[in-house]
Design brief:
CATH superfamily: NADH Oxidase
Number of strands: 6
CATH class: Alpha Beta
Order of helices and strands: HHEHHHEEEHEHEH
Structural class: alpha+beta
Largest sheet: 4 strands, antiparallel
Radius of gyration: 20 Å
Strand order of the largest sheet: 1-2-6-5
Shape: globular
Strand content: 5-15%
Distance between the termini: 39 Å
Number of domains: 1
Length: 228
């Protein structure tokens, strides 16, 4: 006897898809590639305010990402309060000191050396916004509670959407993953069922912001693509 299929789910018409001619597709793809080449990870931010509505629209765009079983296992905490940002910096730098001074292998530190990173993270206070991303181990919503599927993959895709949305809005970004990140649950009041995933710093670059030359070296298409 075959397994029972879930109850039939009503389908909606794909009414908002825009079909483009091949030359339009090619032009759009090249335009996007040219634009995304201007996205760089920076560590020197200006304290210039950025409207909250801009960041919220970018997070809403991230929420449109595909996810396993459409369970959308992500939660974003937007932090602009200076006191909370300072606490995040203090906690993150404590973990980073342990990483750079004790936990990191010589090989790992050698890989990081060309980027010039260290345990000091002043941008966590200077940039106007920090977005803390959490991955939800348990689902919630109209389908009730239960395990989420492909949690890491789903949240990773949503973070990609978010980084691109912030770039398209004219903002610079930095991804930061201090390890461990359990302090994020405590500082931001998130339940233990949510796994801290990433901090995304967003704002305008400082006037003297620079990018390490090493970070500009991207692999050419021929190294990252196989066509079958």
């Amino acid at each position: 006897m075959s397994a029972q299929h879930p109850a039939f789910t009503p389908l909606s018409e794909l009414g908002d898809f825009t079909e483009r001619a091949p030359d339009e597709m090619a032009a759009d793809a090249k335009a996007f590639l040219a634009d995304i080449k201007r996205r760089h990870t920076i560590r020197d931010f200006a304290p210039t305010p950025v409207p909250r509505a801009v960041i919220e629209d970018c997070i809403a765009a991230a929420g449109r990402a595909p996810s396993g079983a459409n369970l959308q296992p992500w939660h974003f905490v937007l932090i602009g309060d200076q006191t909370v940002k300072r606490k995040i910096r203090e906690a993150a730098e404590a973990e980073e000191r342990a990483f750079y001074w004790r936990r990191a292998s010589a090989e790992w530190l050698e890989a990081l050396a060309p980027l010039g990173t260290d345990e000091n993270k002043p941008y966590l206070e200077i940039a106007p916004w920090i977005i803390a991303v959490f991955a939800k181990r348990r689902a919630d919503g109209e389908r009730g509670e239960g395990k989420t599927y492909y949690m890491h993959e789903s949240v990773g895709i949503a973070c990609g959407f978010l980084l691109v949305a912030l770039h398209r809005a004219g903002l610079a970004t930095l991804t930061h993953t201090p390890n461990p990140m359990g302090f994020m649950n405590d500082l931001l009041g998130r339940p233990a069922s949510e796994k801290p995933y990433m901090l995304i710093v967003a704002g305008l670059p400082a006037a003297d912001a620079k990018v390490p030359e090493h970070a500009l070296r991207k692999k050419p298409l021929g190294e990252i693509l196989t066509v079958i």
